[in-house]
Amino acid sequence: MALFKKKEKALIDETSEQQNVQAENLSETDSGLVKTSLVLHPDWELSNQEKYVYMFKHQQLPLLKENQISINGLRLIQYEEGFVVVAFLRNTLPKSIHFENITILLMDSDGTALAKKVFELDTIGELPALSCMPWRFLFENTDKLADTIPEEGWKLAFEIKESMTRPHQLDLDESWEKEISPVQKEQLESLVAGLPALNPNEVNIRGLEAKFTDEGNLAATILFRNGSFKELQLEQLPLVVEDAADEVICQGSFALKDFKVKANTTKPWTFIFPKELIVKDSPDLSKWRVHLPENQ
Fold first, then answer.
1. Can you give the residue ranges of every domain in the chain?
2. Which of 59, 230, 264, 267 has the most CB atoms within 10 Å of its CB?
3. For residue 207, is pLDDT > 80?
4. Which of 10-19, 100-109, 173-182 has the highest mean pLDDT?
């Protein structure tokens, strides 16, 4: 990637470069704002001078609120086939995050999109909690939405899908829509609305109801909670159910067909564990939990 190395030198040499930090325009000085620590990707080979520049730029960034993921533009470099943007990725969540496919917009000062591209960011690996990492984003000419791209007066932003701008919602399968009453549906909607908020891209499962059937099987109703930007599809799901004593009641694996959970929704589903899989007599179901096997 000789292009990136050459352009990185331009970033360092031009000390009067346009800052163009896409800040949240935070003016608060009270508690609740978070400082991030600069981390550099292990694959980046940087001189001490280059590291100093990133440290200096990082120190100039405004503080962020807790539980935010932000992108802050540093430098735009034009070339014949497109342009490269050097930017900081920032994470003020209390845990590390892993980027997948994400759409990034280059916009002018008025918020008009000038370029748009979906980036596969698996190579970044994990961005640690409360950290900030520089990264290079290569836009090609085909990604442009405008004839000209200014070298100043621009900003970067993540494209927020419509599903992420509305409140987290209940996602009911068609079969459930037919089976439950309007009152039961309203109760589920209230339950979902009252659950703790998911962090960005967080996906988890939560037990709703567990009871034994007349045949001696265990019926466990589970909430699939999808806090990500994209639809979740499951094909095979291993589950472990434990009772109030934290002892295993049953364990099994379920094959799922066309099972999808829409972005930013919670979907209930009931799993039937045959009595042959029940390993504890008279379990205490006053409190129970469901989870994936430890080796998953």
1. 2-159, 167-291
2. 264
3. yes
4. 173-182
C-alpha to C-alpha distance for 141 and 118, rounded to whole angstroms: 14
Q: Give the number of other Cβ atoms within 10 Å of residue 26's Cβ.
A: 12
Dihedral sign for Cα atoms in the order 165, 166, 168, 169:
negative
Residue 212 structure tokens? 């034994």
**Phi first, then psi: what are they for 168, rounded to 5°?**
-60, 135
Q: Which residues pair with 259 in a beta bridge?
A: 234
Whether 130 and 92 have beta carbons less than 8 Å apart is answered as: yes
Residues 220 and 208: their CA atoms lie apart, in Å, by: 8
pLDDT at 295: 66
What CA–CA distance (Å, rounded) separates 275 from 214?
11
Q: Which of 93, 86, 100, 102 is nearest to 40 (CA)?
A: 86
H or E element: which one contains 184? helix 182-194
Across 31-56, average pLDDT: 90
Determine the Cα–Cα distance for residues 255 and 251; give it in Å rounded to an integer: 14
Question: Which pLDDT does position 183 carry in this prediction?
Answer: 94
Its pTM surpasses 0.70: no
Work out the percent of the chain whose per-residue pLDDT is above 90: 60
State CA 248 to chain mean position distance. 31
Phi, then psi, of 282 in degrees rounded to 5: 50, 55
Can you give the C-alpha Rg of the chain in angstroms?
Answer: 24
Task: Give yes or no for residue 48 having a pLDDT over 50.
Answer: yes
The candidate with the shortest Cα–Cα distance to 225, out of 257, 276, 191, is 191
Amino acid at 280: K
| Angle at which helices 2-13 and 48-60 cross, to 10° | 60
Pairing of strands 203-212, 64-65: unpaired
